[in-house]
Write a structure and sequence with these properties.
By secondary structure, this protein is mainly α. Among the domains are: 242 residues, no CATH class; 116 residues. The protein has 21 helices and 5 strands. Strands 2-1-3-5-4 form a 5-stranded mixed beta sheet, sandwiched between helices. Strand 1, helix 20 and strand 2 form a beta-alpha-beta unit. The chain is globular, with a radius of gyration of 25 Å. The N and C termini lie far apart (88 Å).
Length: 555
């Protein structure tokens, strides 16, 4: 029987259609997984990993297991008047964390929801207590986000070009990639943000069990990140209610019922996580934090001019667009604006990590603008737009005179300055202070040795069996009730610790330098711009001592 004409051409067209998304998926996999274990976990990652280990051991993520303490690392929130009590008595340090709402009286951690700990614990149970086990599930979640974003855009906007462009923009977002490689909730938040939007679109399109699936996915997102969800939940339910009222006022009960169901599922955890009792030291004024947040969104999530242009195009073309597509873009714009106002209100400081999870939404808005606004020349112009957004800071510059960059942020002039981090942080080997120090201690220390460290104490807890003193909380830094510390590790680059405590303790004993040349940088693998302020190849060595009776040391 003769083959229909055009069949081969159709197959070749489909193959070409899937070629670009396949290549982008492979590029995302390389960027998220390459050299994933080259550097050891830094402080925030080790927070996730240690709590995951304790979840496996105790059935709950204990911040205080009777040996070592995990605090919130918020120097501003700690009362300097209680320092003398906390540094000598581990129990007092623990009680201070309970008072501030960081953990419960039984030592259980509630400063973050448990979703990331459950995921990390599952991986550690399968792969062992390693760097790979801690980071791999989060990197895979980042990869899943790329595919979920493609499916969201393609399902709602019915454009493979737009879906491909959105995924390309996300994959080329350097800081999103760096955060996706962390053993931390960032990639999970991005993933569940996209999945929540996808579930919402299915619900609004009348899919079977749409509301039930949406409530379930939104609840899972809350269990991953209970800070970001609120403005997005508010925007989604407002959209659902307005749409229902416009269609048939009697159908407004449907989104209200779904909202009540979601709230009912969340309320017990509001008490469980003690959200109403949380005390957080806010750094600077709200306008100061707003400026920093606005800069980070404009520079690293989506340029403000793109959001404004998308709003104008949406207003002009609203009646000619499919309803669900127009509503999704409106939700995306509202999400960016909502986070710009919400984050400086609830977050203590200005960090890229507090907004980078919205990068998929930024990629969606930019892709939609490039494809829908440029008509018949969409493909060529859209890829030019990808190059401009991903490789240059040009579209970010109109907002530059209005906002001051946070510490460590560098915008570049012709090319984005963070592009160089692909080479240094992913494809090259870096001198990692945590790896160098921990590997030496693993070879030379015995489990009964106690270690004093002024910062990045949590990586030691993950990789080593020893009791760890110090950290920002100065936990047991001057404890006289047990053996003195055998080793002291001092980062002079850290400004946010109680320095008199460490000076006193170091000056009490005699020390000899340990022959490990580890760079004295504040953070080992911090993915934020602040983590790249100092050139680790030019940094002085941190102070690493072993206690002896022959030679004094000085800070």
């Amino acid at each position: 029987m003769p083959r229909p004409r055009g069949g081969g051409h159709e197959q070749r067209s489909r193959a070409r259609e899937w070629l670009a998304p396949t290549l982008i998926g492979l590029a995302a996999a390389v960027l998220l997984l390459w050299h994933l274990t080259d550097t050891y976990l830094w402080q925030d990652e080790a927070n996730t990993a240690v709590l995951a280990v304790r979840l496996l051991e105790h059935g709950k993520p204990l911040a205080y297991d009777g040996r070592n303490l995990i605090s919130d690392d918020n120097y501003v929130a700690m009362d300097p008047k209680t320092i003398e009590e906390r540094t000598h008595d581990g129990r007092r340090a623990f009680e201070d964390c309970v008072r501030r709402g960081v953990l419960k009286p039984d030592g259980m951690w509630t400063f973050h929801p448990w979703g990331q700990f459950v995921l990390a614990a599952s991986s550690i149970a399968l792969l062992g207590r390693t760097t790979l086990a801690a980071r791999l599930p989060f990197a895979l979640a980042g990869l899943a986000t790329v595919f979920a974003l493609y499916w969201l855009v393609f399902r709602v906007c019915r454009s493979s070009l737009m879906a491909t462009v959105a995924c390309a923009l996300l994959t080329l977002n350097v800081y999103w990639v760096l955060h996706g490689r962390q053993a931390r909730y960032y990639s999970l938040t991005s993933l569940f943000l996209v999945l929540t939007l996808l579930a919402y679109a299915r619900w609004q399109q009348g899919a079977r069990f749409g509301a039930t699936v949406f409530v379930a996915v939104a609840w899972c997102w809350f269990q991953v990140d209970y800070g970001t969800v609120w403005p997005v939940f508010g925007i989604l339910f407002l959209d659902a209610i307005v749409h229902a009222l416009r269609a048939d006022w009697r159908s407004a009960w449907n989104p209200v019922t779904a909202g009540v169901a979601l709230l009912g599922a969340i309320v017990p955890f509001l008490f469980f996580y003690r959200l109403s009792h949380r005390q957080s030291g806010l750094l600077g004024t709200w306008p100061h934090r707003f400026q920093g947040t606005l800069f980070n969104i404009n520079e690293y999530v989506v340029p403000a001019v793109v959001v404004l242009a998308a709003l104008v195009v949406l207003a002009v073309r609203w009646r000619r667009l499919p309803e669900i597509e127009a509503r999704l873009i409106a939700i995306g714009i509202a999400t960016i604006v909502g986070l710009a106002l919400w984050v400086p209100t609830v977050a203590p400081m200005t960090f890229v990590r507090y907004v980078i999870m919205a990068a998929p939404v930024g990629a969606l808005l930019a892709a939609w603008l490039f494809v829908r606004a440029l008509g018949g020349h969409a493909a060529t112009a859209a890829w030019i737009g990808v190059a401009v957004v991903a490789l240059t800071p040009w579209l970010c510059q109109p907002l530059a005179p209005l906002v001051r960059p946070p510490r460590g942020s560098s915008t570049g002039t012709v090319l984005r300055s963070e592009l160089s981090l692909l080479r240094t942080d992913i494809f090259s080997h870096r001198r990692d202070p945590n790896r160098l120090v921990i590997e030496w201690l693993a070879r030379n220390a015995v489990p009964t040795d106690e270690i004093l460290i002024n910062y990045e104490d949590l990586p030691l807890m993950y990789y080593l069996p020893n009791r760890i003193r110090g950290g920002i909380a100065s936990f047991r830094a001057e404890d006289d009730a047990s053996v003195p510390p055998r080793y002291a590790i001092i980062r002079r680059s850290v400004p946010f610790v109680h320095w008199p405590v460490y000076r006193r303790e170091v000056e009490r004993w005699f020390w000899t330098p340990v022959p490990v040349r580890a760079p004295d940088i504040t953070w080992g693998n911090n993915p934020d711009p602040e983590g790249h302020v100092r050139d680790r190849t030019k940094a002085a060595d941190l102070l690493f001592f072993e206690r002896t009776d022959t030679e004094p040391a000085a800070l």
